[in-house]
Design brief:
Blueprint: H1 2-19, E1 45-46, E2 49-50, E3 59-64, E4 67-68, E5 72-75, E6 83-84, E7 92-94, H2 96-108, E8 111-116, H3 122-127, E9 133-139, H4 142-145, E10 149-156, E11 159-164, E12 179-183, H5 189-194, E13 200-203, H6 210-218, E14 224-228, H7 229-238, E15 242-245, H8 258-261, E16 262-267, H9 272-282, H10 287-300
Parallel strand pairs: 3-8, 3-9, 12-13, 12-14
Antiparallel strand pairs: 1-2, 4-5, 5-7, 6-7, 9-16, 10-16, 11-14, 11-15
Helix pairs in contact: 2-9
């Protein structure tokens, strides 16, 4: 993979220069270097160091869970436009995030490389330069913006609940009418911000992933879950016995800010070149464009996704 190869080559070059007695380069301070970048830096200077865009080699390396349908999932072949997962040979990534990444790459003349990482590893991977960007259904929250910069939004996601059809929870017309045990995915505004707004909620331990969250509901471990509309729509493909509880437009809905529902692409702090390249494409797309692409992703989502 280009990131690992770049790191090894860089180390060999440094050792060779030291052995030859070459004068060392001036020491820099600031964010870690993007290991996928070539020597020419095109980003904004930050703290004395220059942030490279990461795509000087013509490859955009993107991280995602590959387990968060319909945003992203893993499949055994390249059907429906799936792309290889660089660190999981024999597996392919697909979904809304992959489709969007392909559009961004096509518009900028880049090749796409997808890396599969756990949810909690996504932001650190951008910070340390392991990947150029994370396209994984991340809300553009203030907390995340302290750690990374965001391009986008590339989607606007309504917050909803999911419950079993025929259950008492399925009859709720607002968050004041729903009660029972519940959960959501860890590290999300669904779990940290939305569930606590439900007075009748018996909040259980957060699920490690979106599939684990849905399995908890399907198996009866909880009575309902909180998620966003695309995830809920994708869930119905695998679990048709579930129903979506959408309280949007009522006075009995979740209180969320734009940062909670705006979904963005995280990149290294100070990487203005990459941000501008991504925003130049996203800025020409509308909410309808995003929703139509999401509908396409849901239409090809595997049942086990």
């Amino acid at each position: 993979m280009k990131k690992i190869l770049a790191m090894l080559l860089a180390a060999i070059m440094v050792l060779s220069m030291a052995a030859c007695g070459t004068t060392t380069a001036p020491e820099t301070t600031g964010a870690p270097a993007d290991t996928g970048a070539a020597t020419e830096a095109t980003g904004e200077a930050t703290g004395g160091a220059t942030i490279a865009s990461g795509v000087e080699d013509g490859v955009l390396t993107v991280a995602m869970e590959c387990a968060y349908a319909p945003y992203n999932w893993s499949q055994p072949d390249d059907s429906n436009g799936a792309v290889p997962i660089a660190n999981a040979p024999g597996n392919y990534a697909n979904g809304y995030d992959v489709m969007m990444a392909k559009k961004l790459c096509e518009a900028n003349g880049w090749e796409l490389e997808v890396m599969q990482l756990d949810w909690d590893s996504l932001v650190p991977a951008v910070q340390n330069g392991t990947v150029d960007a994370v396209i994984a259904g991340q809300s553009m929250t203030a907390d995340r913006m302290e750690m990374v910069d965001f391009a986008g939004p590339y989607l606007y996601a309504t917050i909803v609940c999911l419950a079993k059809s025929g259950s008492a929870q399925a009859e709720a017309k607002g968050i004041s009418e729903i009660s029972g045990t519940c959960t959501s995915q860890m590290g999300t505004i669904w779990y940290d911000t939305c569930l606590p707004q439900i007075k009748g909620a018996g909040i259980q331990t957060a699920a490690e992933s979106a599939p684990a969250m849905l399995m908890a509901l399907e198996t009866g471990a909880v009575d309902f879950v909180c998620t966003d509309m695309p995830t809920a729509q994708g869930a119905l493909v695998a679990y048709p016995d579930l129903v979506i509880l959408d309280f949007a437009g009522t006075e009995d809905d979740f209180e969320v800010s734009d940062e909670d529902i705006n979904i963005g692409i995280s990149i290294m702090k100070g990487n203005t070149s990459l941000k501008e390249a991504l925003d130049s494409v996203l800025g020409g797309m509308t909410a309808d464009d995003f929703n139509n692409l999401m509908a396409e992703a849901i239409s090809v989502q595997p049942i086990e996704g």
